[in-house]
């Protein structure tokens, strides 16, 4: 009977924690970083209305130093996208890609005034003529 109790105790104290930690994939992630910025990081005030993460990639570094993962930003698999962008107001805004409170990375996007774009286009047209 004592041998049976020891076996159950060993099972409980060694196997159960292994199973539980194996269920949380976040425990194996060491850090994340922006690998490739999204195709669009400049937006026009009053014209663009939402963030477009197409083309962006996140590199997920796992605890095993020989393994890492490349994740498409636009799929938003297990990540939260935190942004407070006012698409009507020109400025530089931070976009945060977060896996948890301690696993996150960020990049900047810019919202420009539509007159700025028109001025650039006019200067290019003038230089051609």
Kindly describe this structure:
- A hairpin with a 7-residue loop joins β5 and β6.
- This protein has one domain: Immunoglobulin-like (Sandwich).
- It is elongated and about 90 Å long.
- The chain has 129 residues and is an alpha+beta fold.
- About 9% of the residues have low confidence.
- 10% of the residues are buried.
- The termini are far apart.
- The strands form two sheets. Strands 2-7-6-5 form a four-stranded mixed β-sheet.
- Helices cover 29% and strands 33% of the residues.
- It has two helices and seven strands; from the N terminus they run αβββββββα.
- The longest helix has 22 residues.
Strand content range: 25-35%
Terminal CA distance reads 97 Å
Q: State Rg.
A: 24 Å
The profile of the biggest β sheet is: 4 strands, mixed
How is the largest sheet built, in terms of strand order?
2-7-6-5
Helical content class: 25-40%
Poorly predicted spans: 16-26
Oligomer: single chain
The overall pLDDT average reads 80
How many beta-strand runs? 7
Tell me the CATH architecture: Sandwich
- Number of continuous helical runs: 2
The geometry reads as elongated
What are the secondary-structure elements, in order, as H or E? Answer: HEEEEEEEH
CATH fold label: Immunoglobulin-like
Number of domains: 1
